Amino acid sequence: MSIELKRAFETPSRDDGYRVLVDRLWPRGVAKADARIDEWCKEIAPSDELRKAFHGVELGWGEFRRRYLAELKAHRETLRGLAERAASDTVTLVFAAKDERHNNAVVLAQYLAMLAPGLRADSS
After folding, report:
1. pLDDT, tens digit, for every residue of 24-73?
2. Sign of CA dihedral 88, 120, 30, 51
């Protein structure tokens, strides 16, 4: 199947399949009851240090991506399970970032696609 990406502020849809919040912090202004999150994977979000450096403009996109991929390697088994789920069903990675092209969910989707060959990661 596929991995989709969706901002936490967008309305959930049946087409989202299994919805996973991939941020360390809960998105401001989003009610938990309305978010329809099936799983909150705080542990696979970027470390606080990395997140703050990226949002504080201390790191560019390329360096953030490189460091986050290194952090993800420590969670390979957890991520393998998520990739296996995505291979048989749609998994939507939910994130709060305003920039839809440069955020941790984009990097995570690419990493999951590497773990499950043939998996389509929609990181448009």
Report:
1. 999 999 999 999 999 999 999 999 999 999 988 889 999 999 999 999 99
2. positive
d(C-alpha 58, C-alpha 73), whole Å = 23
Which of 37-57 are b and which e, b meaning 16 or more Cβ less than 10 Å from the residue's Cβ?
A: beebbeebbbeeebbebbeee
Encoded amino acid at 64, one letter: F
- How big is the CA angle at 59 (ends 56 and 64), to the nearest 5 degrees? 115
pTM: predicted TM-score of the whole model, two decimal places: 0.91
DSSP secondary structure code for residue 81 in this structure: H
* Paired tokens of 34: 């309305």
Nearest alpha carbon to residue 90 among 2, 12, 6: 2
Rounded distance, CA 35 to CA 11, Å?
Answer: 8
